[in-house]
Amino acid sequence: MRNTYETETETESGTAVAGSAPVRFDTKVAVLLRDDLESWQRLNVTAFLVSGLGTAVPEVIGEPYEDADSTAYLPMLRQPVLVFEGAKETVTAAHARALSRSLTTAVFTADLFGTGNDRDNRAAVRAVGRDALDLVGLAVYGPRNAVDKVLKGARMHP
Predict the structure, then answer these.
(1) Is residue 40 part of a domain?
(2) In this structure, are residues 108 and 48 in contact, taking their beta carbons and an 8 Å threshold?
(3) CA-CA distance, 128 to 109, in Å (whole number)?
C-alpha cells in the first residue's frame, strides 16, 4: 500500500494541502498487532493505539471535516495508518527497535484486556518493566525509513 493521498499535495514543510497531485509523506503511522489476537481485539487495540498520536504529535491531525449540509465532524489523522501483524517475537523486537530510534510509540499489553479504564490501563503498564511487557500491539510514528526498519519481519495485516 502506498503512503499517499491522491487529492493532496505536500508543501516544503511536509504538510498536505488541497490539490490534484499525489503526496508522499516523509513520515509513517504504523500499527503492529500480534498475529494471535481475536478479530475484536485487533480492532480494539488498533483504535486505542492510534488514539493518542494526535496529542503527542499534533501535526498529524488534519482539518475538521464538513459535509455538503455544513454538518461539522472531527478531524482525523492526515495520513494513512498502515496496519501490520507479526508473531509475539516480531512485536517485541519492533518495540525495542522503536525505542532505540526514539520514535513516538504507543503500546498495548495483554493485561489491558482485563482492565476497564484509563487509570487501570496505565497502572498495568507501569507495573511491568519495559523488557517484560506482554505486548499485543504497538503504534509507531516517525520518519518513513525508520518506521520501515522497526517493522522488519512484520507483514501487512490481511
Answers:
(1) yes
(2) yes
(3) 10
CB atoms near residue 62 (< 10 Å): 16
Whether 90 and 32 have beta carbons less than 8 Å apart is answered as yes
122 in a domain, yes or no? yes
pTM of the model: 0.84
pLDDT tens-digit profile of 19-77?
567 778 899 999 999 999 999 999 999 999 999 898 999 999 999 999 999 999 999 99
Residue carrying the nine cell digits 509507531? 140
Give a yes or no: residue 143 inside a domain: yes
Give the Cα separation of 110 and 134 in Å (integer): 6
Rounded CA-CA distance 94/153 in Å is 9
Q: How many CB atoms lie within 10 A of CB 74?
A: 7
**Phi/psi class of residue 102: alpha, beta or left (left: φ > 0; alpha: ψ in -120 to 50)?**
left
Taking only the tens place, the pLDDT of each residue in 105-141 is 999 999 999 998 999 999 999 999 999 999 999 999 9
Phi, psi of 157 (to 5 degrees): -65, 135
How many domains, in total, are found in the chain?
1
